[in-house]
Amino acid sequence: MINEFKKTIPRFVKNFYTGSLKSYKKISYSQCGEDLIMFSLVKKFPKDSLLYIDVGAHHPKRFSNTALFYKNGWRGINVEPDKNNFKLFGKRKRDINLNLGVYTKEGIMPYFRLNESTLNTFSENEAREYEKKHNFKIIAIDEIPIATLNSVINKYNNGIFPPFLNIDTEGTELEILQTIDYVKNFPKIICAETMGYGGYRSTNENKELINFLLGVGYLIYGQTGLNSIFTHKKWINY
């Protein structure tokens, strides 16, 4: 009897973890679970129009704040300047994928590629800081075409800002956010990197960016160790 009971314990534990707990499992593609935090907001929007514009999209899955939404049937615009990373977005066939950068004006800008591609940036100061303080290396400087956020939206979504803006441009986020018309045409949800790189953890909260968005009508919906999620107070109704 005791031996038989001992045999049932491993089966019970296995069934519990593979069965009972499986129903509670939630998959996140984000670096710090941002997609799961935003899902209750995003599910309010229909799937027959563009949901997101991802500026500095990086990768279709790795650390992506939009992959979960794509997987669940939504679509949007991915903007990725790195030519190697951009090729991977061929997997996101419902999306509009653009191999360029976004800044405050159109033209050509030097793009600093590092040996960790999540840190690639148009900001030379940021790139040099990564080299000096964190032992990363600049492996290439490419000349990349630049568009403004408004020109991308005008061309690919009839001038209508998608509900969700994800932005991670390693140092130029605030300048880009300052180009948006927050009276007439703006995103309802913004996820922006607000913590600087600090090795094993993020440090140095970008209070200037946070205060700017609070000043133009946004509320902080959630924060992780890397990003802040904002919702506009004219829209929020959860």
Explain what the structure shows:
This is Methyltransferase FkbM domain-containing protein. Pfam families: Methyltransf_21. InterPro entries: FkbM_mtfrase, SAM-dependent_MTases_sf. This protein has a seven-stranded mixed β-sheet, sandwiched between helices. The protein has a three-stranded mixed β-sheet with strand order 4-6-5. Strands 9-10 form a two-stranded antiparallel ribbon. It is globular, with a radius of gyration of 20 Å. Helices cover 30% and strands 26% of the residues. The mean pLDDT is 89. The chain has 238 residues and is α/β, with parallel strands linked by helices. The chain contains eight helices and twelve strands.
By CATH's scheme, which homologous superfamily of one domain applies? Vaccinia Virus protein VP39
Overall structural class, as computed from helix and strand content, comes to alpha/beta
Rg value = 20 Å
Order of helices and strands: HHEHEHEEEHEHEHEEEHEE
CATH topology-level fold name of one domain: Rossmann fold
Termini Cα gap? 55 Å
CATH architecture of one domain: 3-Layer(aba) Sandwich
Mean pLDDT figure? 89
Q: Portion of residues in helices?
A: 25-40%
Strand order of the largest sheet: 3-2-1-7-8-12-11
Sheet having the most strands: 7 strands, mixed
Q: What's the helix count? A: 8
